[in-house]
């Protein structure tokens, strides 16, 4: 389940809520009890893993960019 961030437009209180995607947005602020909560847009905190170009992003040393190394070496010879 995603964690959504909310901010009250009345008192400025900020909070997080663990909700299903299908749940209705929260409206009532727990600090001032006013129906002024607004859902905030924030960056997701996740890491993409698996095959593809993300696979090489978290490697170090000689293992980094394995697919790109073979493409660069063949590409550099054709340009000469």
Explained architecture:
- With 80 residues, the chain is an alpha+beta fold.
- Helices cover 16% and strands 18% of the residues.
- The chain is built from one helix and three strands; from the N terminus they run βββα.
- The protein has a three-stranded antiparallel beta sheet, with no helix packed on it.
- The radius of gyration is 23 Å and the shape is elongated.
- It starts with a strand and ends with a helix.
- The model has no long low-confidence stretch (mean pLDDT 76).
In total, the number of strands is 3
N- to C-terminal distance: 53 Å
Q: Could you tell me the strand content as a percent range?
A: 15-25%
Coarse structural class: alpha+beta
How many helical elements? 1
Strand order of the largest sheet: 2-1-3
> Mean pLDDT across all residues, rounded?
76
Spans with pLDDT under 50 lasting ≥5 residues? none
Fraction of residues in helices? 10-25%
Rg, please? 23 Å
Element-by-element helix/strand order: EEEH
Q: How would the global form be characterised? A: elongated
Q: How would a crystallographer describe the biggest sheet?
A: 3 strands, antiparallel
- Classify the oligomer: single chain
